[in-house]
Design brief:
Blueprint lengths: L2 E6 L3 H13 L3 E6 L2 H10 L4 E4 L2 E2 L2 E2 L13 E6 L4 H9 L2 E6 L4 H13 L3 E4 L2 E4 L4 E4 L2 E3 L3 H12 L4 E2 L1 H9 L7 H15 L9 E4 L3 E4 L2
Protein backbone atom coordinates (compact mmCIF):
# COMPACT_ATOMS: atom_id res chain seq x y z
CA UNK A 1 0.00 0.00 0.00
CA UNK A 2 1.09 3.55 -0.55
CA UNK A 3 0.24 5.53 2.55
CA UNK A 4 1.85 8.12 4.74
CA UNK A 5 1.46 7.72 8.51
CA UNK A 6 2.65 9.91 11.36
CA UNK A 7 3.09 8.51 14.88
CA UNK A 8 3.15 11.27 17.50
CA UNK A 9 4.22 9.62 20.74
CA UNK A 10 6.76 10.68 23.37
CA UNK A 11 7.25 7.21 24.88
CA UNK A 12 9.89 5.73 22.59
CA UNK A 13 9.07 2.13 23.56
CA UNK A 14 5.42 2.60 22.59
CA UNK A 15 6.44 4.56 19.50
CA UNK A 16 8.68 1.68 18.39
CA UNK A 17 5.96 -0.90 19.13
CA UNK A 18 3.45 0.98 16.95
CA UNK A 19 5.98 1.49 14.16
CA UNK A 20 6.85 -2.22 14.05
CA UNK A 21 3.17 -3.23 13.96
CA UNK A 22 2.46 -0.82 11.10
CA UNK A 23 5.65 -1.71 9.21
CA UNK A 24 4.65 -5.38 9.22
CA UNK A 25 1.48 -4.38 7.35
CA UNK A 26 3.52 -2.52 4.71
CA UNK A 27 1.22 0.49 4.71
CA UNK A 28 3.84 2.80 3.25
CA UNK A 29 5.99 5.56 4.73
CA UNK A 30 5.95 5.90 8.51
CA UNK A 31 7.16 9.05 10.26
CA UNK A 32 7.59 9.65 14.00
CA UNK A 33 7.63 12.65 16.32
CA UNK A 34 7.95 12.84 20.09
CA UNK A 35 7.05 16.45 20.80
CA UNK A 36 4.84 19.27 19.60
CA UNK A 37 7.60 21.06 17.69
CA UNK A 38 8.83 18.12 15.62
CA UNK A 39 5.24 17.00 14.92
CA UNK A 40 4.26 20.48 13.77
CA UNK A 41 7.21 20.60 11.39
CA UNK A 42 6.21 17.29 9.80
CA UNK A 43 2.55 18.26 9.54
CA UNK A 44 3.50 21.48 7.79
CA UNK A 45 5.77 19.62 5.35
CA UNK A 46 3.65 16.59 4.43
CA UNK A 47 0.07 15.46 4.02
CA UNK A 48 -0.59 12.25 5.97
CA UNK A 49 -3.25 9.62 5.43
CA UNK A 50 -3.34 8.76 9.12
CA UNK A 51 -2.01 10.49 12.24
CA UNK A 52 -1.72 8.55 15.50
CA UNK A 53 -1.76 11.12 18.29
CA UNK A 54 -0.81 10.78 21.93
CA UNK A 55 -2.35 13.57 23.99
CA UNK A 56 0.36 13.96 26.64
CA UNK A 57 3.47 15.08 24.81
CA UNK A 58 6.12 16.05 27.37
CA UNK A 59 3.47 17.81 29.45
CA UNK A 60 1.97 19.51 26.38
CA UNK A 61 -1.52 18.95 25.00
CA UNK A 62 -1.47 16.98 21.74
CA UNK A 63 -4.69 18.64 20.60
CA UNK A 64 -2.61 21.72 19.77
CA UNK A 65 -1.68 19.89 16.57
CA UNK A 66 -5.23 19.32 15.32
CA UNK A 67 -5.28 22.72 13.59
CA UNK A 68 -2.64 21.46 11.15
CA UNK A 69 -4.83 18.56 9.96
CA UNK A 70 -7.22 18.53 7.02
CA UNK A 71 -9.87 16.07 8.18
CA UNK A 72 -11.00 15.51 4.59
CA UNK A 73 -7.59 14.01 3.81
CA UNK A 74 -6.02 12.98 7.11
CA UNK A 75 -7.65 10.55 9.54
CA UNK A 76 -6.87 11.23 13.18
CA UNK A 77 -6.61 8.30 15.60
CA UNK A 78 -6.06 9.24 19.23
CA UNK A 79 -3.88 6.76 21.13
CA UNK A 80 -3.68 7.74 24.79
CA UNK A 81 -3.87 6.71 28.44
CA UNK A 82 -6.64 9.26 28.94
CA UNK A 83 -9.67 7.01 29.05
CA UNK A 84 -12.58 8.80 30.69
CA UNK A 85 -15.78 9.21 28.71
CA UNK A 86 -15.16 12.95 28.62
CA UNK A 87 -11.71 12.40 27.08
CA UNK A 88 -13.20 10.14 24.43
CA UNK A 89 -15.93 12.65 23.59
CA UNK A 90 -13.34 15.41 23.34
CA UNK A 91 -11.31 13.31 20.93
CA UNK A 92 -14.21 12.94 18.54
CA UNK A 93 -15.05 16.62 18.89
CA UNK A 94 -11.53 17.34 17.61
CA UNK A 95 -12.16 15.26 14.50
CA UNK A 96 -10.82 11.87 15.56
CA UNK A 97 -12.16 8.88 13.64
CA UNK A 98 -11.03 6.45 16.34
CA UNK A 99 -9.92 6.52 19.98
CA UNK A 100 -7.56 3.81 21.25
CA UNK A 101 -6.90 3.48 24.96
CA UNK A 102 -3.57 2.39 26.39
CA UNK A 103 -2.58 -0.36 26.90
CA UNK A 104 -3.57 -1.61 23.47
CA UNK A 105 -3.04 -4.59 21.18
CA UNK A 106 -0.59 -3.39 18.47
CA UNK A 107 -2.00 -5.87 15.94
CA UNK A 108 -5.52 -4.54 16.50
CA UNK A 109 -4.21 -0.99 16.16
CA UNK A 110 -2.59 -1.88 12.84
CA UNK A 111 -5.91 -3.21 11.54
CA UNK A 112 -7.67 -0.03 12.65
CA UNK A 113 -5.11 2.04 10.74
CA UNK A 114 -5.48 -0.22 7.71
CA UNK A 115 -9.17 0.60 7.40
CA UNK A 116 -8.31 4.23 6.71
CA UNK A 117 -5.22 3.62 4.58
CA UNK A 118 -7.11 1.37 2.18
CA UNK A 119 -9.59 4.15 1.45
CA UNK A 120 -6.79 6.32 0.06
CA UNK A 121 -5.21 3.95 -2.48
CA UNK A 122 -7.16 5.28 -5.47
CA UNK A 123 -6.78 8.95 -6.34
CA UNK A 124 -9.32 10.51 -8.68
CA UNK A 125 -9.09 14.09 -9.89
CA UNK A 126 -11.45 14.85 -12.73
CA UNK A 127 -10.60 12.37 -15.49
CA UNK A 128 -7.21 11.54 -13.96
CA UNK A 129 -7.04 8.29 -11.95
CA UNK A 130 -4.00 6.98 -10.07
CA UNK A 131 -3.93 3.55 -8.42
CA UNK A 132 -1.20 3.63 -5.79
CA UNK A 133 -1.33 -0.14 -5.30
CA UNK A 134 -0.53 -0.94 -8.93
CA UNK A 135 1.01 2.42 -9.98
CA UNK A 136 -1.43 2.46 -12.93
CA UNK A 137 -2.32 5.94 -14.20
CA UNK A 138 -5.09 6.78 -16.66
CA UNK A 139 -6.60 9.90 -18.22
CA UNK A 140 -10.06 9.90 -19.76
CA UNK A 141 -10.12 6.14 -19.30
CA UNK A 142 -6.93 5.61 -21.32
CA UNK A 143 -3.77 4.23 -19.65
CA UNK A 144 -0.77 6.53 -19.39
CA UNK A 145 2.82 5.34 -19.40
CA UNK A 146 5.00 7.32 -16.97
CA UNK A 147 8.70 6.98 -16.30
CA UNK A 148 9.70 6.13 -12.73
CA UNK A 149 10.72 9.74 -12.11
CA UNK A 150 7.49 11.09 -13.56
CA UNK A 151 5.44 8.75 -11.40
CA UNK A 152 7.41 9.70 -8.27
CA UNK A 153 6.87 13.34 -9.10
CA UNK A 154 3.13 12.88 -9.60
CA UNK A 155 2.84 10.82 -6.42
CA UNK A 156 4.58 13.53 -4.40
CA UNK A 157 2.29 16.20 -5.82
CA UNK A 158 -0.80 14.12 -4.98
CA UNK A 159 0.43 13.40 -1.46
CA UNK A 160 0.67 17.16 -0.94
CA UNK A 161 -2.26 18.27 -3.07
CA UNK A 162 -3.40 21.89 -2.84
CA UNK A 163 -0.13 22.84 -1.16
CA UNK A 164 2.62 24.94 -2.72
CA UNK A 165 5.81 22.90 -3.04
CA UNK A 166 9.11 24.70 -3.47
CA UNK A 167 11.72 23.49 -5.92
CA UNK A 168 13.96 22.45 -3.05
CA UNK A 169 11.19 20.36 -1.48
CA UNK A 170 10.63 18.58 -4.78
CA UNK A 171 14.35 18.03 -5.32
CA UNK A 172 14.79 16.58 -1.83
CA UNK A 173 11.78 14.26 -2.00
CA UNK A 174 11.84 13.07 -5.61
CA UNK A 175 15.56 13.14 -6.44
CA UNK A 176 17.02 12.86 -2.94
CA UNK A 177 19.41 14.99 -0.91
CA UNK A 178 22.53 13.40 -2.42
CA UNK A 179 21.62 14.18 -6.03
CA UNK A 180 22.45 17.51 -7.65
CA UNK A 181 19.52 18.76 -9.75
CA UNK A 182 19.25 22.03 -11.66
CA UNK A 183 16.11 24.01 -12.37
CA UNK A 184 16.07 22.99 -16.01
CA UNK A 185 15.90 19.27 -15.08
CA UNK A 186 12.85 19.87 -12.91
CA UNK A 187 11.15 22.03 -15.53
CA UNK A 188 11.68 19.37 -18.21
CA UNK A 189 10.20 16.63 -16.03
CA UNK A 190 7.18 18.73 -15.11
CA UNK A 191 6.66 19.69 -18.75
CA UNK A 192 6.76 16.04 -19.82
CA UNK A 193 4.43 15.03 -16.99
CA UNK A 194 1.95 17.75 -17.96
CA UNK A 195 1.92 16.52 -21.56
CA UNK A 196 0.82 13.11 -20.30
CA UNK A 197 -1.72 13.95 -17.58
CA UNK A 198 -3.16 17.29 -18.67
CA UNK A 199 -5.89 17.65 -21.29
CA UNK A 200 -4.05 20.81 -22.37
CA UNK A 201 -0.43 21.01 -21.24
CA UNK A 202 -0.28 24.69 -22.17
CA UNK A 203 -3.12 25.46 -19.76
CA UNK A 204 -2.54 22.96 -16.95
CA UNK A 205 -5.38 22.27 -14.56
CA UNK A 206 -3.54 19.88 -12.26
CA UNK A 207 0.10 20.95 -11.90
CA UNK A 208 0.27 24.73 -11.86
CA UNK A 209 3.22 27.07 -11.51
CA UNK A 210 3.14 29.58 -8.66
CA UNK A 211 5.53 32.28 -9.81
CA UNK A 212 8.36 32.90 -7.38
CA UNK A 213 7.25 30.09 -5.04
CA UNK A 214 7.11 26.74 -6.80
CA UNK A 215 4.34 24.42 -7.96
CA UNK A 216 0.96 23.27 -6.73
CA UNK A 217 -1.17 20.25 -7.62
CA UNK A 218 -4.83 21.30 -7.72
CA UNK A 219 -7.40 18.75 -6.63
Amino acid sequence: MNGKILIIEDDHDIQTLIKIALSNKQFGNIYTADDIQSAEKLLRSYTFNVVLLDLNLKSENGYQLVKYLNNNVTKLIVVTAKDTDLDVYKGFEHGAVDYVKKPFDPIELAFRVGVHIEKNNIHKNGNLVVNFDTTDVSLNGEPISLTTREYDLLEYFIENKNQILTKNQIYDRVWGYSVSVDDNTLMVHIRMLRKKIENDANTPQFIQTIRGKGYIYRS
